[in-house]
Amino acid sequence: MQRTVFFVSDSTGITAETIGHSILTQFEGVDFDTHRMPFVNDADKAHAAVTRIKSAWARTGLRPIVINTAVDATLSEILGGSGALMLDVFAPFIGPLEHELGVRRHKLVNRAHGLFDAAKYEARIDATNYALAHDDGLDPSYKDADLILIGVSRSGKTPTCLYMALHFGLRAANYPLTPEDLELAELPKRLQGQRQRLFGLTITAERLAQIRAERRPDSRYASVEQCRWELAQADNLFRREGIAVLNSTHTSIEEIGSKILAQLGIERHLL
Amino acid sequence: MQRTVFFVSDSTGITAETIGHSILTQFEGVDFDTHRMPFVNDADKAHAAVTRIKSAWARTGLRPIVINTAVDATLSEILGGSGALMLDVFAPFIGPLEHELGVRRHKLVNRAHGLFDAAKYEARIDATNYALAHDDGLDPSYKDADLILIGVSRSGKTPTCLYMALHFGLRAANYPLTPEDLELAELPKRLQGQRQRLFGLTITAERLAQIRAERRPDSRYASVEQCRWELAQADNLFRREGIAVLNSTHTSIEEIGSKILAQLGIERHLL
């Protein structure tokens, strides 16, 4: 029988789910049935959550687990009335921090998830617009780019750029290495002088062929041979030019993003 | 003097930073200087981290705070040698969970951050491509859309759609309400029959005028009067048709995203 887990939050539930997921993956082999309950921000909603938790218990016969980021102690108390195993994400850290800092925390609901910051929001939106305007080599000017991703067609450049923009507010451009570019013995003209901002994206030939086949089945473009040649040429280019390379085959967008930040020496935070 | 905080992780550091940020915002008024240290995944890197932590202490005269998601106890021990206030994000929850589940957790490094899941990755990439192909009303078919965002030009549709795609793997399309659409007494033809999947995006007229002025300064398009008229017409349309409305002026992309999921009755998790 699956063990039911609820990620309960007075806001979006993203923090509860992020940490909850990290904790649960340390118990491999246990079958979890996870549910997110966002915006549990008043007593009525907390009571409704309790009803749901109890009904999961009755249905499965197993005590549910609640991973809770509600800051308001009243809400946590109501949730505790469900009898579930309560894991309060913030509680263990408040005491030690209050002691260290010599101040009491503020118990404002929603505070934990940050007040809306218009400047940061705009930076993300601006960066996203930049990424769209500089996708696939569209706009030839890279003077404002924080980074330029290069790689063969369908190697994962666009989603990575959009992620860097939406999350970090970074101006991420990308340039597709065409077969013509790959026959040259040097960096394409537009990329020269940009080496510090260049990142190469690679992928396995088999995976690339699969992705390309969805776009143009049975084409030379999608053949494993063509993919293999393009990728080998691109890898040569990256090596020759000393460009950092990231492989999107077995790496999540988050990991690629963090690696790019680390290489750029940026400790910029999630916006 | 600022209190230095390090978010230390054996992987991307996103979990450490997410929870760390949530905890720190509960101590409003304290001036924190935060740094992310990702990929601290061996003893050498942990010792290098300790050097950095100690030098921050020497520089500021204040004991640094370390928010740590390293799963490997050996690494946590090395980090603890810095003398900083150590807040181990996972530790408080492992004991209660082991007791509840009757199994020991696996102490594999990197496990906490999830193994790479190719199927989920593909769903995100596919959804991102879908969002790009269905941006700004480009592709007229909405038959595969999970949701369709509608709103006047520059109300924030595109970044929201990209976020829904990248995070939740949802096929998010968007349709711009033109002044011509807004003069009609009914939903634009292409949107009829889609009501369950429609979400209206709104924004204040002042903010919209500001955003539009960046694109076309001193235009009728960017005038507050024109913005006010379009927004009022759009709000009328949303009300008349019973379409859920989200305001992007004071709401983060994350909150808008979570609200859309809740309205759609989707408990889909972060991918």
Automatic annotation (TrEMBL), chains A, B:
Transmembrane segments: none annotated. It comes from the Bacteria. Keywords: Kinase, Nucleotide-binding, Pyruvate, Serine/threonine-protein kinase, Transferase. Its EC number is 2.7.11.33, 2.7.4.28. InterPro entries: Kinase-pyrophosphorylase (IPR005177), PSRP (IPR026530). It is an enzyme of class 2 (transferase). It catalyses: [pyruvate, water dikinase]-phosphate + phosphate + H(+) = [pyruvate, water dikinase] + diphosphate; [pyruvate, water dikinase] + ADP = [pyruvate, water dikinase]-phosphate + AMP + H(+). ADP binds at G151, V152, S153, R154, S155, G156, K157, T158. GO terms for molecular function: ADP binding; ATP binding; phosphotransferase activity, phosphate group as acceptor; protein serine/threonine kinase activity. Pfam families: Kinase-PPPase (PF03618). The keyword Transferase applies. NCBIfam families: PRK05339.1 (NF003742). Belongs to the pyruvate, phosphate/water dikinase regulatory protein family. PSRP subfamily. Bifunctional serine/threonine kinase and phosphorylase involved in the regulation of the phosphoenolpyruvate synthase (PEPS) by catalyzing its phosphorylation/dephosphorylation. This is Putative phosphoenolpyruvate synthase regulatory protein.
